[in-house]
Specification:
By secondary structure, the protein is of the alpha/beta class. The protein folds into 2 domains: 28 residues; 202 residues, 3-Layer(aba) Sandwich (Rossmann fold). It is 35% helix and 19% strand. It has 8 helices and 8 strands. It has an 8-stranded mixed β-sheet with strand order 1-2-4-3-5-6-7-8, with helices on both faces. Helix 3 links the parallel strand 3 and strand 4. Helix 3 packs across helix 8.
């Protein structure tokens, strides 16, 4: 009588495992990209694109960049979604590297910046940016490596750790229609960053338009164009980078 019971338990466990694995695989399915994301994976006269081992890279074609920006993608968002932003920022003289994440979740790749930094000894000043979960995990990385990173740009995100005492130039940019806008700009978020951190609300912007992808759950429709929102995100990030004082 014991063997059939053991066999039944074994089958039940296999079924449970299959359900768990299948559910996780469904959950981590990436959001669909928009055509502009794919189009940005190319070099231009001003910017050289490379699909490197540690991430997608956009570098000024003229070279000589001393400052680099490492970007952590949002949860379930492919790194390519931020390609247009990276291309724009690189065109102003900065190396930009977007790191892919295991299962498209930055919580499984907090240390991804290590490989990027090691691969670019020519860069003397590093900053990070991150969308949503990616921003929070970038903050976690900086918390553990405070001397390695000098700037941080939150794209619809906030720090889940205290960075307030660090020598860090920080900017938080978010859309007014983002469901998490109050959390991104509230007292908790401000207290976690240095006192001179800059908070910028984009009127009419939402969560999804921080990148070029679709299908963001629970997001309100934006009342401004994606191009407009992206331009404002790029401008806020560039102001932070320019302030680091190491632009070419």
């Amino acid at each position: 009588m014991r063997r059939p019971r053991r066999r039944t338990v074994g089958i039940a466990l296999l079924v449970l495992l299959a359900v768990v694995v299948g559910g996780f695989a469904w959950y981590v399915q990436p959001q669909p990209l928009l055509p502009e994301a794919t189009a940005s994976l190319a070099s231009t006269p001003e910017v050289t694109f490379t699909a490197a081992a540690d991430g997608l890279e956009w570098a000024p074609s003229a070279g000589g960049h001393e400052t680099g920006l490492i970007v952590y993608p949002g949860g379930k968002v492919p790194p390519e979604a931020y390609g247009p932003l990276a291309q724009d920022i690189a065109g102003h003289g900065y190396l930009v590297v977007i790191t892919p994440m295991p299962f498209n979740l930055a919580v499984f790749g907090i240390g991804a910046a290590d490989g990027v930094i090691a691969a670019h000894p020519e860069v003397t000043t590093w900053a990070m940016a991150g969308h949503s979960l990616g921003g929070s995990m970038a903050a976690q990385y900086i918390s553990g490596n405070p001397s390695a990173i000098h700037g941080l740009a939150f794209w619809a995100s906030y720090a889940a750790t205290d960075l307030s005492v660090l020598d860090l130039s920080a900017v938080s940019v978010y859309g007014s229609l983002d469901p998490g806008a109050a959390r991104m700009s509230g007292p908790e978020a401000r207290a976690a960053l240095p006192p001179d951190a800059v908070f910028i609300e984009i009127p009419g912007g939402n969560h999804e338009q921080m990148g070029y992808y679709t299908g963001q759950p629970n997001d309100q429709p934006a009342t401004i164009s994606r191009e407009d929102q992206q331009a404002q995100v790029a401008a806020a990030t560039l102001t932070m980078l320019d302030g680091l004082g190491a632009a070419p």
